[in-house]
Amino acid sequence: MRLPIFFVPLLACVPTAIAEEGFHLYKFPGHHGLPSIADTGFTVHQPDRSQPERVEPPCLSAEAKVGAPSDAIVLFDGTSMDQFRDNQWKFRDGLLIAGKGGLNTVEAFGDIQMHVEWRTPDPEPNKSKPGSMGNSGIFLMQKYELQVFDSYSCEIYADGSAGAIYGQSPPLVNVCRKPGQWQSYDIAFTAPVFDGETIVSPARITVFHNGVLIQNNTEIFGPTRHNKALPYVAHPDKMPLMFQAHGSPVEYRNIWVRPL
């Protein structure tokens, strides 16, 4: 089954005034002279690419969680790490905490709907290296990264912002909450289709961040990589999901997936 362009966001609340204290207190500029991004007119991590507009996310109780549908595969509910391969992440107080290396699922997936909740730590320990502030990522099929980042505290290059398809497409808006507050991604992902070694249909992704649409049926141009623009290379129809560790103890909870 192919994915719809839209699906209903799972979080809603009455928005409040924008709280600017600490917003973009730090900056991490991009890079000149890197490869061009297909069909965009931009280069990878271009430093003067327009930043996403700031939008205050809907309010959310600190303990509010989105329950999993009856047909979902629950990857993490705070009770065990059985759905993941051997790893060097921490499991404490019902949370997954980024450690070293990738966190890969046991099961492989293609087209999916996915819900994941995450929060970034105090940025102070990383103030000398803001590019590591709350830095993590969700790799669909271990290849296509939806960026996790503290885009409240740090203005990074636009295609590295929270909710970006890393190195390709910035989010439509910046709806990051402050560090220490829980955030959510609701994702609809369409896997790429190959005919032998030839790409027939590229991957596409729709994302709601904290209930706000930030990627709208966005085409993914190929595997995502720092400083690079890579072409598609044929791979299986289903592959594991991978959560990235990037030197910051980003926390995760309440992760579920619906294969489509």
Description:
- The chain is mainly β.
- It has strands at residues 26-28, 53-54, 73-76, 88-92, 95-100, 103-109, 112-119, 136-140, 144-148, 154-156, 173-174, 183-190, 193-195, 198-201, 204-209, 212-219, 224-225, 228-229, 239-245, 251-259.
- The strands form six sheets. Strands 3, 4, 5, 7, 12, 15, 16 and 20 form an eight-stranded antiparallel beta sheet that branches. The chain has a four-stranded antiparallel beta sheet with strand order 6-19-8-9, with no helix packed on it.
- Strand 17 (224-225) and strand 18 form a beta hairpin.
- Mean pLDDT is 91; it is low at 1-18.
Question: What descriptors fit this protein?
Answer:
8-stranded antiparallel beta sheet, 260 residues, mainly beta, globular
H/I helix tally: 0
Order of helices and strands: EEEEEEEEEEEEEEEEEEEE
Strand content: 35-45%
Summarize model confidence as the mean pLDDT.
Answer: 91
Helix content: under 10%
Catalogue the unreliable spans: 1-18
What is the assembly state of the chains in this entry? single chain
Describe the global form: globular
What characterizes the major β-sheet? 8 strands, antiparallel
Radius of gyration: 17 Å
Task: Report, as a whole number of angstroms, the end-to-end distance.
Answer: 6 Å
- Beta strand count: 20
User: Structural class, judged by helices and strands?
Assistant: mainly beta
